[in-house]
Design a protein that fits this description.
The chain has nine helices and ten strands. It is of the alpha+beta class.
Length: about 325
Amino acid sequence: MMSRRGHLISVFLLFALFASGQDMDRLRFFQVPDSLNKVRFWSLNTAYATTVTGAAIALDQVWYADYPRTKFHFFNDWAEWKDLDKSGHLFSAYFQSKWTAGMYDWAGVPRSKSIWIGATSGMVLQGILETMDGFSEKWGWSWGDIAFNTAGSALFVSQAALWDEQRVVLKYSVHKPRYPNYTLTSRSDPNVTTTLQERADQLYGTSLAAIMLKEYNGLTIWASGNVSSFLPKTRIYKWVNVSVGYGVENVFAGYGTTWRNDDGYAFSITDPDYQPYRQFYFSFDIDFSRIKTRSKALKVLLGMLNSLKVPFPTLEVNTKGGVRFHPVYF
C-alpha cells in the first residue's frame, strides 16, 4: 500500500533541499538565482540521490524484509481500502513532483525544465516503490497505482505549464478516530474475541507516526482550489480556497469486512452500523503560498505547510445516505 510508504519518501524529500549544503558564493540560502547555480545544482543532485537511495534501503530493511520475497508479479488492487490508498498515490506523486521542481528552481534550473524534472521525479520515486511491491509476496506491481501516480504528476505539470502556478493543490489531513466499544467473536473459535480498536491498532499501528501515515479511517485527501485564481475579479482574500475531500470510515480490511488476526483467527463484521463506506467533504481552506511576506525563509515554511488542510467547518456527504455538518474538521 504505497500511500503509507510514499509519505515516508515525501518526508525525506523535504530534507534534501537543506541537506545540500551552504552556498559557496554570495547567495543567501533561500535566494533563488537568476541562472543555473552549479554549486547548488550538483550539491542538490548528490543530496537528492543519497536521500532517495537511503530511504529505499531503509524501507527495504524495515518494511519489505518482514514479508516473503517472490518473483516479480502483478497485483490487481482496484477498490482495495475503498480507494483511499489510490488517493494516497495521487497525493504522494503530486507532492513529490511539486517539491522536486521547487528544489531545482532553487538551483537556478529554468522553470520550463524544473517542472518536468519534478514530474519525472514523482513518477520515478513511485516507480521504485511499485517495483519493490512487485517482488513482495504480500503485494505486487499494480497498474492502478501507476495510473494514480501518473495522474498526480500530471496534475502538477499541467497546471505549471498552463498557468505557471498551482491553482488546485492536493492536501491531506488526519485525525485519530474514536472507535466504539464493539466486541467481535471469532468465526473460527467462539472463545476468542476482539474489538474494533484492537483491530485498528493491529492494522494501522498506535504511534503518532503510524496514525499520521497509516490510519485510513482518519485520513482525508483534499483537492483545494484557489478562488481568486479562477475568479480574478472577486473581492475574496487571495489566499482563500474551497476544498473537496475524500475519506473512508469503518475500513478494517482491504476488501469487505472479513479478516484474520496475527494468530490466524477469523473475524467478520455483520452489524450494518459498522459497514465500510465512503465520505465526501466540502470545506474552506487557506493557500499559504499566497500569503505575502518579505521573508524568503517564511515563504518556504508556508510552502511546506501548504500540503496540510486547515481545519474549517465542513459538510460531509457519505455513501450511507447521510449528511453531516462538522463545526471543525481536520
